[in-house]
């Protein structure tokens, strides 16, 4: 959530100023009224810097496991539905939490609630909950549907984990095969080819050009293996540093979507998360502009998030969701037609849910046929590799055999 600077009058008429967190200025005004302060002026303000934190503060940020978020959402729904007060529910969850980090988070939430802050602000102050999660809780507070929101968040997080797991499984097989082939090439060049090179050197005969290339490459690897290992580690470090930047992350995420075979699976899984998140936001009463702003933070892809941001800007200018979605160029014509029907019928949330289901089914189908799609490519690559090695290693033996037969 954003930070807002405010000035107002308290119950005795004194002027008070401060900085407060909220979804928008209206939410901040409501929060101030609830604490007995009549706001006079509210404006956007930069986030205050936490005291006692240096340049390494980002490394000390607590990581909460996704499974703990799932369990927290489900338990909060069950406890609130049973009529348990929020403070008592949080106390029970804090005592039963198995993770020390999550136990500290719940303790901070309870302390923030004790000081008079609403639940959404208390969750946001811990830094452990996403902006989408916090915004949904805020919607639940303002609409009186908090328990229903926690159930929807549970289903949403479960779907997110399902999509993330399916994408990982889609990429695991080709990555494993490529790594295995790379290791095989290294072993052959360091151990196998040098042994054959010693045999060929004793013949004192000219070697075929392919064999000379293989021996030269093998000699290079043997002589500079340590330098190549350092270069590999350095490349990995530079890659991680580059993708940690905004432009680097954007380009890498765009490249992932354009990879052969696996790229379309990643794109469909990402769009499934986008559609399900937007459906949840609209169904919970979040305005479409704010919903697009929040959903952009849940897609886990900088390129798609940038397209969603352009959609938000277009809708903010008064354009339809259909028009902005067509300009994004990431949706199929069938999906765009469903968006048009949703807008015209006023059931955009239902249509986005249907779109999410379509993409999910397509991802599951692509995963089932992934082996059939990638096996021909791997077989061809492996065949070319074996052919090169076989010709390079056995051509000299063949030539020597032919020469011996002529004698």
Structural summary, described in words:
Residues 50-61 have low confidence and may be disordered. A three-stranded antiparallel beta sheet has the order 2-1-3, covered by helices on one side. The chain has helices at residues 25-34, 66-81, 86-96, 100-114, 119-126, 131-143, 146-201, 209-223, 225-243, 246-257, 262-283, 288-295, 302-316, 321-328, 333-345, 348-368, 370-406, and strands at residues 2-9, 15-22, 38-45. Helix 14 packs antiparallel against helix 15 (333-345). The relative contact order is 0.08. It is built from 17 helices and three strands. By secondary structure, it is mainly alpha-helical.
SSE order and pairing:
Blueprint: E1 2-9, E2 15-22, H1 25-34, E3 38-45, H2 66-81, H3 86-96, H4 100-114, H5 119-126, H6 131-143, H7 146-201, H8 209-223, H9 225-243, H10 246-257, H11 262-283, H12 288-295, H13 302-316, H14 321-328, H15 333-345, H16 348-368, H17 370-406
Antiparallel strand pairs: 1-2, 1-3
Helix pairs in contact: 2-3, 2-7, 3-4, 4-5, 5-6, 6-7, 7-8, 7-11, 7-16, 7-17, 8-17, 10-13, 11-12, 11-16, 12-13, 13-14, 14-15, 15-16
Defining traits:
17 helices; mainly alpha; 3-stranded antiparallel β-sheet; 407 residues; elongated
Assembly classification = single chain
Binned, the helix content reads over 70%
Provide mean pLDDT, rounded: 80
Which segments are poorly predicted (pLDDT under 50) over 5 or more consecutive residues? 50-61
Overall shape: it is elongated
Structural class: mainly alpha
Largest sheet: 3 strands, antiparallel
Number of strands: 3
Run of helices and strands: EEHEHHHHHHHHHHHHHHHH
Q: Assess the beta-strand content as a share of residues.
A: 5-15%
Q: What is the number of helices? A: 17
CA-based gyration radius: 30 Å
Strand order of the largest sheet: 2-1-3
Question: Distance between the terminal alpha carbons, to the nearest Å?
Answer: 87 Å
